[in-house]
Amino acid sequence: MGRNALVTGASSGIGRALSERLARDGYHVVLCARRAEPLREVLQSIQAAGGSASIEVIVVADTDRAVARIREIDRALTGGLDLIIANAGVGEKKGHVSYAWEALADACHVNFTAAAATVTAVLPEMVSRRRGHI
Asked: Could you tell me the strand order of the sheet in which 83-85 lies?
């Protein structure tokens, strides 16, 4: 049975680097981000190096849809997800004083609420399988 990982924010930066490393280590990596084109570039890089990956356009800020899709992915993969990395994140919104709520609201939602939704989406299944990491 192969190992499966899901990485949010996989289209660039640390998320991309982690995805490429996991693929080199033998994981099938589900690459998740809100934009398809950058994900295709990561997919091509992984496949060119002999790794296995797939793309899922997921907007983690839409927590209900994100959780539902992560659960579908878990059910569809042989053996389910073994690893979830909640890497997606955003910074403060431009055009506001950096410490004003208007500047911080989106970052709080994505960086905390969406991360919590992502890592707990299939936690009950991981516990039931007695394996998995977040």
From this structure: 52-57, 27-33, 3-8, 83-85
Identify the bridge partners of residue 8 per DSSP, sorted by sequence position.
Answer: 32
Strand pairing category for 27-33 and 83-85: unpaired
Give the lowest-confidence range in 40-44, 45-49, 52-56, 94-98: 94-98
Angstrom distances, CA of residue 24 to CA of 5, 12, 21, 93: 12, 17, 5, 35
Per-residue pLDDT, 53: 98
- Treating both helix axes as pointing N-terminal to C-terminal, what angle do 36-48 and 13-24 enclose, rounded to 10 degrees? 30
* Cα–Cα dist 131/128, whole Å: 8
Across the range 1-8, mean pLDDT stands at 91
Q: Collapsing DSSP states into helix, strand and coil, what is residue 54?
A: strand
At residue 1, the pLDDT reads 58
DSSP 3-state assignment of 8?
strand
